[in-house]
Amino acid sequence: MALDPSEVSRPRLPKEAKAFDLHPVEVEIPVARKQTLFAKRLFDVVSSCVGIIVLCPVFAIIAIAIKIDSRGPVFFRQIRVGRNGTPFVIWKFRTMTPNADHVAPNVSPSSDPRVTRVGRFLRSNYLDELPQLFNVIAGTMSVVGPRPETPEFVARYSREERRVLDVKPALLGPSTLASMDESAILDAAEDPFTYYVDVLMHERVRLDLAYLDEMSLGTDVKLLVRQVSKIIVGRG
User: Fold this and answer.
1) Contacting residues for 6 by C-beta, under 8 A, at least 6 apart
2) Which one of 26, 54, 87, 190 has the fewest CB atoms closer than 10 angstroms to its CB?
3) Which of 184, 180, 187 minimizes the C-alpha distance to 234?
4) How would DSSP label each residue in 13-74?
5) DSSP 8-state class, residue 178
6) Mean pLDDT of 93-107
7) What value, to the nearest 5°, has the Cα angle with vertex 170 and ends 173 and 137?
């Protein structure tokens, strides 16, 4: 699966995130787009509540496996940039050893030794992202849309790329679907961090911007089905 390159960095307090320029490109939202956002929010709440109820046993099993496999907390928290450039705390199941951020840069190729045994399984099946269903219910994230980045990466966005901040970041989306093998690509790069910043990051934003131009509830459902199908039946 695609690995969030910033997953291993230490949580940064919102006030520290303000040191970066996170201002989005302000645009007037058409009435039709507002209706789409309302439909998305309704879909987000309903699907997340159902997902959490159905997946409760899975959450418990994952938590136990993480604690047995390595010392440290069950959950990983980190500051990401949300809608309108507002920082928020994202939740994940921990997939790395404690203090992994002190060992290497904020990029995680497939051969990264900091990833635990259980962590590799969770990442390969996208299970480490499940706690973000609580982010969705809290209103800081959506189910489908652009993936959130950390402040230091958003600060590198161009003016056009800042348009992704016009909507809530999401659990999955077009850039997630297209980059499920990103960790292998990073593993082959001479300098994974530089390659991500110079190439992959901008490619992900390009896909997310294209999604914004055709955003609809129908598109969200299609992307959700495609993502789940890829996880269940393989990358294909």
Assistant:
1) 78, 106, 149, 150, 152, 153
2) 190
3) 180
4) -HHHHTTS-------PPPHHHHHHHHHHHHHHHHHHHHHHHHHHHHHHHHHHHHHHHSSS-S
5) H
6) 75
7) 140
Q: In degrees, to the nearest 5, what angle opens at C-alpha 60 toward C-alphas 179 and 118?
A: 45
Instruction: Indicate the SS3 state at residue 174.
Output: helix
> Computed over its alpha carbons, how large is the radius of gyration of the chain?
17
Q: Give the start-end residues of each E strand in the chain.
A: 75-81, 87-93, 142-144, 170-172
Token digits of residue 179: 């980059």
Could you report the per-residue pLDDT of 166-190, keeping only the tens digit for each? 999 999 999 988 877 888 888 888 8
**Beta-strand pair 170-172/142-144:** parallel
- Please give the distance of CA 217 from its chain centroid, rounded to a whole number: 20
3-class secondary structure, 96: strand
Render pLDDT for 53-96 as a digit per residue (tens, 0 to 9).
Answer: 999 999 999 999 999 999 999 999 989 999 999 999 999 999 98
pLDDT at position 185: 86
Residue 45 structure tokens: 């709440």
Angle at alpha carbon of residue 30, lines to 139 and 137, rounded to 5°: 10
Domain range annotation of the chain: 14-233
